[in-house]
């Protein structure tokens, strides 16, 4: 089934780039946090980076499985400098909100094109985005409360696990998940 001319296929191809860009941005945040001696925050963002990479590769596998032309787009350079954890986390929260809007648009495009497989594929990502935004919002709140005592962020992250609860079976990852 070739869908090269559909809006859904075009948005999905673009989303692969957005997911890789998110992965790169999270690596940049992780490296910044490592340089600030915030190992818990760094570890959280190194892990999130892998999650975003896996999301991109889930989309690649789906496109391959559906015979949708698959091209890996270039990504812009990530922001690498931050005034503090609030700035880094606020950027990550806005990024997650943007990804949510993009996934919603993908779902709507699949629906408009009467593509139930596309809709079904996007449902897992919609559930994932609810969690991603909620978790990032919590981290921003914790960082704002910590103010200049960055160690409180580290304490929180050491104590709390990532609150992801998306128990739906994730889509297959091209090349395998990392």
Automatic annotation (TrEMBL):
One Pfam family recorded for the sequence: Ferritin
Source organism superkingdom: Bacteria
Domain Ferritin-like diiron positions: 2-147
Keywords assigned by UniProt, alphabetized: Iron, Iron storage, Metal-binding, Oxidoreductase
Tagged with keyword Nucleotidyltransferase: no
Protein name: Ferritin
